[in-house]
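Data deposition worksheet. Section B asks for the primary sequence of the deposited chain exactly as it was used as input, without tags or linkers unless they were present during the calculation. Section C holds the resulting structure in token form. Section D is free text for depositor observations; keep each observation to a single sentence. Incomplete worksheets are returned to the depositor.
Section A, Depositor: J.P.
Section B:
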Amino acid sequence: MQLIDTHCHLDVAAFDKDRDAVLGRAHTAGVTHIVVPGISAVAWKKLLALCTTETGLYPALGLHPMFLDSHHPDDLPALETSITRHKPVAVGEIGLDFQLPALDRGRQKTLFEAQLHIARAARLPVLLHVRKAHDETLALLRKARVCGGICHAFNGSLQQARQYMDLGFKLGFGGMLTYEHSHRLHRLARELPLEAMVLETDAPDMSPASQHGQRNSPEYLPELLPALSRLREEDAAAIATQTTANAIGLLKLT
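Section C:
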């Protein structure tokens, strides 16, 4: 069974001691492709080196809204240069985070719009981080007209999900789906078309219920399949096949 983790921060320090072992277990579990999103310009070099040396890893480059104070004005032209030179599969992780009051919303929007412009010029999809800001994000996406992408860890409304789909976006589902209390996610998982869904871990964060409180890892991605199979009353293998095809088609993975 072939699976794709469309959002995994495998480059971060949490994996420095056992990254090779994690990758080995993930491959054994059937996770053949892993997309590694960037969060800050200073980390791109390590991320790109990792994706160059390891088979099945695909880089995305972006400036994460949660790290707003660490970004520099020169990072935007550096992003354009890096995209041209290194050919990432997407621009990300980018977006809006209105859940954290300390993050300036105006600066976030300015940074997000600039990266959407870069993505459109490069004809690349985007990997979105959105918390408490779906309507604002959708408005900016309609204006920017990028070529689709993934709304990572989606937890908005069914109506918002359909608006993302209308703009060519897939919706990312991860470990929170395995928790009994995730009623909104469960409803989305039942009602959305499978063609709109992709799988992700967001490792080392957002661990599934079986690993609650522990480091998340791409090797746990298959745990989403029985959860989705129960919710949708569909065959797990069929879900794996379709979500994998969704990711390959959107991100043009090989």
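Section D:
Residues 105-122 form the longest helix (18 residues).
Residues 3-251 form a domain with the TIM Barrel fold (CATH 3.20.20.140).
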